[in-house]
Write a structure and sequence with these properties.
This protein is α+β, with helices and mostly antiparallel strands. The chain is 37% helix and 13% strand.
Length: 153
């Protein structure tokens, strides 16, 4: 992923030190971060930067389709550099969010299934909740069944 200012310029975004730094931080990290986390890490480099400036930078990057905003069931909105669609695995115990790569075939199949009846999908977020391997190991290997929303159990 290009962490330079070039993607910002190509999208017609006015490049400021704040926007460039937020972009670099997200592009280099390869992970999700809340605006608060971005602000805390940005203050180390740009000490006078306000949290509101982080939100404005994120909004400009999101509007340019360089950053994706995810709203998971709990917690603050999370931001990441725009990458291919992928699932979000949320550990119910430790709160960690994992985002494994999904094969293009799976994404295409899911989009095709969602397009039934002519629905045009503009954005896709897949969230699965459960226990990560570390927390599952803390339970001594106990495993529960998978509950699908709408399914009677």
């Amino acid at each position: 992923m290009d962490i330079s200012e070039k993607p910002l310029k190509e999208k017609g975004i006015r490049v400021t030190p704040q926007r460039a730094h937020v972009w670099r931080l997200l592009a280099e990290s390869g992970t999700h971060m809340s605006a608060q986390e971005i602000w805390e890490r940005t203050r180390e480099v740009l000490p006078g930067m306000e949290l509101s400036t982080v939100y404005r930078a994120l909004e400009a990057l999101r509007e340019a389709n360089l950053v994706v905003e995810s709203h998971l069931p709990e917690g603050p909105a999370l931001f990441e550099a725009h990458v291919s669609p992928h699932p979000h695995l949320v550990c119910e115990r430790c709160g960690e969010v994992f985002h494994p790569e999904a094969s293009p075939e799976i994404i295409r199949g899911l989009l095709a299934a969602l397009a039934v009846g002519g629905f045009e999908v503009h954005e896709l977020h897949v969230v699965a909740r459960g226990l990560c391997p570390g927390c599952l190991g803390d339970e001594g290997g106990k495993r529960g069944g998978v509950r699908v929303e709408g399914e009677r159990g």
